[in-house]
UniProtKB/TrEMBL annotation:
InterPro entries: DUF34/NIF3 (IPR002678), DUF34/NIF3_sf (IPR036069). GO terms for molecular function: metal ion binding. This is NGG1p interacting factor 3 protein, NIF3. A divalent metal cation binds at residues 72-73, 109, 226, 230. PANTHER family: GTP CYCLOHYDROLASE 1 TYPE 2 HOMOLOG, NGG1 INTERACTING FACTOR 3. Keywords: Metal-binding. It holds the Pfam family DUF34_NIF3. Coiled coil: none annotated. GO terms for cellular component: cytoplasm. Belongs to the GTP cyclohydrolase I type 2/NIF3 family. It comes from Methanococcus aeolicus (strain ATCC BAA-1280 / DSM 17508 / OCM 812 / Nankai-3).
Length: 254
């Protein structure tokens, strides 16, 4: 999406991202879109991509001469009343270097070929439906055994996934598998999935209490980690943007 002068502007990048992950797909109150910056017509020569706009990512962006930082997670989840400490440091670095920060969060999880669909492709799930009505998560049939499912996870998502409840699995193939990129192993989500005739639920961020609920409901869980279940798809998004934008894109935390 280059303009006549062969210069890429921030707005060109934003349009390319939003074409892929439309903003209206995001769940209510999610903090998406332009996070830091004013001049969306400024020229961009180098893009940084990261899962999180962490302090170390922001420092790397400065070091790498990044003009436009694209992250999955937004810079702030909840409103703040003061700008001090780490958030001050991040804003100082971003504004001093005129780095635009832009995030596509749940819209990137939900969209076609987004982070959830990347997991569908990885496990080659068939007869796929959305897990939640808002578009988050997917559920489909896995044509293989549980050890095969676990091997794919270990080879692509995370080397040491946490497994809960595997001995309770009665089927040895054609498993109904749910996937949800990121934070899917909350207590409420495990309760929801437990009522859906799902054999295995693959997501991230299992806690002690959600593990107990999974065991009580005989739900088999693979915790591939928040990072692993999201970065897997983010790598494809990076390739997609490289093909479309024709300027360097540097991974800053994966
Ligand atoms: Fe996430």
């Amino acid at each position: 999406m280059e303009n006549k002068n062969n210069k890429i502007k921030a707005i060109d990048i934003i349009n390319t991202i939003e074409e892929f992950a439309p903003k209206e797909l995001a769940i209510e109150r999610d903090n998406i879109g332009l996070q830091v910056g004013n001049d969306i017509n400024k020229e961009v020569k180098k893009i940084g991509i990261a899962l999180d706009p962490s302090l170390s990512v922001v420092k790397k962006a400065e070091k790498e001469d990044i003009d436009f930082l694209f992250t999955h997670h937004p810079i702030l989840k909840d409103p703040i009343r003061t700008i001090t400490g780490v958030i001050y440091e991040k804003l100082k670095i971003l504004s001093k270097n005129d780095i635009i920060l832009y995030s596509a969060h749940t819209n990137l999880d939900i969209c076609k070929n987004g982070l959830n669909d990347a997991l569908v492709d990885l496990y080659n799930l068939k007869d796929v439906n959305n897990l939640y009505d808002n578009g988050l998560g997917r559920v489909g049939l896995f044509d293989g055994s549980f050890p095969e499912l676990l091997d794919i996870t270990k080879n692509n998502i995370c080397k040491n996934p946490v497994v809960v409840g595997a001995p309770n699995l009665t089927k040895d193939k054609n498993l109904t598998v749910a996937v949800l990129s990121g934070y899917g192993l909350s207590q409420s989500s495990i309760n929801f999935v437990s009522n859906k005739n799902i054999d295995v639920y693959i997501s991230g961020d299992l806690t002690h209490h959600s593990k107990i609920i999974a065991e009580e409901n005989n739900l088999c869980i693979i915790d591939g980690g928040h990072y692993g279940t999201e970065v897997y798809g983010l790598k494809f998004i990076k390739k997609y943007l490289e093909n479309r934008l024709n300027i360097p894109i540097v991974s800053l935390d994966f």
